[in-house]
Amino acid sequence: MKDFSDYRKNYSKSSLLDHEIVKDPFVLFKSWLKMAEDDSQIDEPNAMTLSTVNDKNEPRNRVVLMKMLKKNGIVFFTNYESKKGDAIKKNHNVCISFFWPSLEKQIIINGICSKISKKESDDYFYSRPLDSQLGAISSDQSKEIPSREYLEKKFNEIKINSSNIIRPNNWGGFFININEFEFWQGRSNRLHDRIVFSKSNNDSWITKRLSP
Ligand SMILES: Cc1cc2nc3c(=O)[nH]c(=O)nc-3n(C[C@H](O)[C@H](O)[C@H](O)COP(=O)(O)O)c2cc1C
């Protein structure tokens, strides 16, 4: 057995006090993202864990990249026929989280997922480097394949005939319309700050502080 019970870290770098709480959570989100972007210890500030629940009520997490931050939410790109794509088709509720250890900050977000327009998916797909486009075409994401060689052969065959690349219909963006944010700031003695913003019926935000 490996025992982690002695692993203990004290969080002391920052705080989220009442006077720092703004009305619009997107303002706070953007300011925390900027801190993550400016932090040399964070390689991919836009990496987030995405949780879905499938039609058997089984949850599943995986990391994806936030590619756009829009007025009411976040866009990421993926294969619509992957495990996450299948789950979202049946259950549009998703949860995402960002954890930036060097900032001692976590953000948990709940929202409703929907496909973005074909035009928006095209615009992003064709803006990617050629090899990334070919990679997306080569991968039936989440399906079993016989070997690594099979994948590389498929990629190379598509590359040879790549004069006219078309975005596959099963690849594109999802928009997460955000209805709740929780901002977590690590504090000393486990007395962390947790501030929740929930969207009300009239689209304003209700704020509350949770016990850590
Ligand atoms: C740092 C990082 C970034 C990733 N970005 C994406 C992404 O933007 N889109 C994507 O489909 N998969 C991305 N992946 C791969 C996913 O974590 C996952 O393996 C894949 O989407 C299949 O997930 P699923 O079978 O649950 O649908 C990323 C993985 C890592 C570690």
What does this structure look like?
By secondary structure, the chain is an alpha+beta fold. The chain has helices at residues 25-38, 83-90, 118-127, 130-138, 148-160; strands at 47-53, 59-65, 68-69, 73-79, 93-100, 105-115, 171-185, 193-199, 205-209. The protein is built from 5 helices and 9 strands. Strands 1, 2, 3, 4, 5, 6, 7, 8 and 9 form a 9-stranded antiparallel sheet that branches. Helix 4 packs across helix 5. The protein is globular. The relative contact order is 0.18. The site of flavin mononucleotide has 15 residues, from strand 2, strand 4 and helix 2.
What can be said about this structure in brief?
The chain has 212 residues and is an alpha+beta fold. The chain has helices spanning 25-38, 83-90, 118-127, 130-138, 148-160; strands at 47-53, 59-65, 68-69, 73-79, 93-100, 105-115, 171-185, 193-199, 205-209. It binds flavin mononucleotide.
